[in-house]
Amino acid sequence: MDPMDQHRVERLLADLKQPDEAVRDRASSLLWQLWFHQKGVYGAQQLMQAQSLLETGHSEQAEALLTSIVQAQPDFAEAWNRRAVLHYTQAKHWTAIADCQQVIKLIPYHFGALHGLGLCHCAVGNYTAAIQAFRQALAVQPYALVNQRMILECTAKLGPN
User: How far apart (Å, rounded) are the C-alpha atoms in residues 150 and 141?
Assistant: First the structure.
């Protein structure tokens, strides 16, 4: 990532921690935009094509497309993330966990993948790991109430210590 982009990302990450909801929402949207366009217009079009396949019930084709993207461009974090989401919706939680971990290896502050990792661990009953992932997501997006709620739910499922 070039220094200009790095500086922009750091500003956006700082904005996620601002009390002003409009500032946070804008920063969140711009980060998603950066992630989707990491590989330019063509990469973004491939992700949109996969989404379109999913929305029309062609999940096998969507999965094949996303798999071909990550094989051809293993550093395309959002392609891994989209495939993780697909696997999660198919209840392939361990496969989704592996994809989320790949996203996080590429972009440690990817709050979507951190949240997704928490959801997957929660779905397989791995509540301690889920709490850890939600806490990491919360460190990036302190105002994300969904992560706070999931931490409470997972803590309750752990039961008394």
Answer: 14
Residues 108, 111: Cα–Cα separation, whole Å: 8
Count the Cβ atoms, other than its own, within 10 Å of residue 70. Answer: 17
Domain span including residue 56: 3-158
Q: What are phi and psi of 70, to 5 degrees?
A: -70, -30
User: pLDDT digit string (tens) for 71-106?
Assistant: 999 999 999 999 999 999 999 999 999 999 999 999
- Any idea what the CATH number is for the domain that residue 45 is in? 1.25.40.10
Provide the whole-model pTM.
0.94
State the total domains in the chain. Answer: 1
Q: What DSSP state is assigned to residue 47? A: H
